[in-house]
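Hello Y.,

Per our agreement to keep a running log of every chain we model this quarter, I'm adding this entry. I've kept the format consistent with earlier entries: sequence first, then predicted structure.
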Amino acid sequence: MTMHRPAMWMLMGIAAGSCALAQDLPSRKVLTLPVAQSMAQDALAACAAKGYHVSVLILDDAGRMKVYLRADGAGNATSEIARMKANSVLAFGRPSGPPPNLPAGAPVPPPLLPGTINAQGGLPIKVDGQLIGVIAVSGAPGGDKDAACARQALDQVADQLR
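Predicted structure for the entry above:
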């Protein structure tokens, strides 16, 4: 059976187009459960070492919960505040907290979006500049201390985030 030239050219074009499409597909990193679990445990331990009873929330890049840990003695509001800190990171693509252009000594404004908060303690988890998740800590006596526990946890898994 011989193939007509137009049909042969059409098949070659389809095959070439399929190869071109496959080459253009993006690849992305994902936050795995073992890494998320390790981060949550590390953040909880970092805060516990300072006597802070906190909640730790890890979300993936779509805002889906990966891990949630609440220390014995952590207040009831810590889980919701951690969620609002994580939502802030996802909404604005930066660590949670007051707007970066806020003048020194100025009062912290209310959050721009429902479900967010202008308090420190939520950090983006990035690989090669790509957001793959969020870690949020709540319950230490100050957002800066929550953020320090989250930062310590990120530093502990830095070699796995490549």
